[in-house]
């Protein structure tokens, strides 16, 4: 099975890319990802003026992670060795860069290009603080910063968009008009992951970026809307844990995906399992390449105005295996479901076809049928 993809004109051995973050903070860490089999790695965010990261800065809770680390602690000059080291190991390197102005972004881009980066990912948003956020939400500034970089370098430029905006598809169109080669979405979500109520303090002392499993629905929606709006390739990011999540993103239009938080929670060995499972699924389902599945789910994704009220109702044809489980009964706000031991009864006059019982039943006892 050939898992290779052509992304931004670069041949990748598979669509799995490691996202920018503390797991790609130097050449050694990026090499671990390359050795594990990824198609490419994205550097931790490279900036002109560094400052030490705060401690603590990472908190995991219920599958999600808040990060208040800002960017790389390496100087721009030091990144020449780190990128060079990964290139010597045969890795494909995408340099994630961040700056306050178009001219500064273009300068950093030209430097990392000379260091050997295969492509650039523009970081135009930060969920920490307030200062840099305007780059991700202001169409004019986004155009200026993207266009300046595109004109300055010869390697592909990808723009990483934030979910902390009102219309991500509109901004993707701006980046496309400015000459970007691809869009990556989404960046982390502005967050406070929780509060220690005994101490009366947040778990981390400032706002930060939220990543991991809980943001996947936000990422999927962004990738779908971007894919429908532009003709550029899209790299999906957000809550990717396994091969199934990769397929979800690709069927909504992504050409590649980026994984990050899952590496911290499961280790670099997890990469090999994800790639193996992805290949097995493609073989088992008789797909020869990813173009056969890319965007497949978009064809059935409708706008709300296109939706019609159809006479679906819930039905169950078998007894529940657990007489004590009442999730379906409790969850039915229309009082259409009753349970008598293992027997489940649906009141077809009360049922409105909302579909919650289908998803909430762990034993898959329910389905929606057309009401005659």
Map the helices and strands.
Elements: E1 5-7, E2 10-12, E3 16-18, H1 27-36, E4 40-42, E5 58-61, E6 64-67, H2 79-88, E7 93-98, H3 102-115, E8 119-123, H4 134-137, H5 139-152, E9 157-161, H6 168-177, E10 182-185, E11 189-191, E12 195-196, E13 201-202, E14 208-212, H7 216-229, E15 233-237, H8 243-251, E16 256-259, H9 261-266, H10 269-284, E17 312-316, H11 327-331, E18 337-340, E19 343-346, H12 356-360, E20 366-370
Parallel strand pairs: 3-4, 3-16, 4-7, 7-8, 8-9, 9-10, 10-15, 15-16
Antiparallel strand pairs: 1-2, 5-6, 6-14, 11-14, 12-13, 17-20, 18-19
Describe what this molecule looks like in 3D.
One of its GO terms (biological process) is uracil catabolic process. With 372 residues, the protein is α/β, with parallel strands linked by helices. The protein has two domains: 5-300, Aldolase class I (TIM Barrel); 308-370, 2-Layer Sandwich (Alpha-Beta Plaits). It contains twelve helices and 20 strands. The strands form six sheets. It has an eight-stranded parallel beta barrel, surrounded by seven helices. A four-stranded antiparallel beta sheet has the order 5-6-14-11, with no helix packed on it. The protein has a two-stranded antiparallel sheet with strand order 1-2. Helix 3 (102-115) packs parallel to helix 5 (139-152) and helix 8 packs across helix 10. The radius of gyration is 23 Å and the shape is globular. 45% of the residues are buried.
